[in-house]
Design goal:
Strand content: 5-15%
Radius of gyration: 19 Å
CATH superfamily: P-loop containing nucleotide triphosphate hydrolases
CATH architecture: 3-Layer(aba) Sandwich
Shape: globular
Number of domains: 1
CATH class: Alpha Beta
Oligomer: single chain
Number of helices: 11
Length: 219
Amino acid sequence: MSGRPNLVVGLTGGIGSGKSSAAAYFGARGAYVVDADALSHQLTIPHGPAIDPINVAFPGVVNEGVLDRPKLREIVFSEESQRKRLEAILHPMVGEATRAAMSSAEARSAPYVILMVPLLFESRSYADRIDCAVLVDVDEVEQVQRVSTTRSVPAETVRQIIAAQMPRAERLLRTQFVIDNSGSRQSMERQVDTLHPVLVANAQRAFSRRQMIGAGAEQ
């Protein structure tokens, strides 16, 4: 991809794991954060670009240009085919938005880019864009408790969302770095402090490799 950052770090984790908090800590240390969830949300704001296609695919979930998110969530996480129908609408749009963000001047000037994607490992289009992955990890009991408490989502709905995502054990096998978010916010921030210079060093090595490859191509 033209203008690709020197190092793209995939940041992922199950629902309620604390990805957004971890991304904010990385961003405070100079990383450029591309949040696929936030971009998806922008597509589904009132009268947003994805509203009309969603209204056609899921009659009754849009009222006067406004998406009924709880109603849509109930539909798509009750049946896999409905979830895939929604993904077929949103994923190409979000993919294009993330590509644009990652090729921006801000992304290319940052020490590295954090690409935060909940379904990072499930989607090859995202997995192929990253150089390494960071998993924010928490056990499923804690996930259910956090989401049902802080977002007023029924516990059973949270369990359905977890069941639709990659199992925790498989995510742990696929990642290069793990942030344990079973403790305090201070504990997470200390782990980010430890990981940040490692990622900066990896980005510097990636930059040097690309310079050498570019120099070789010119000879």
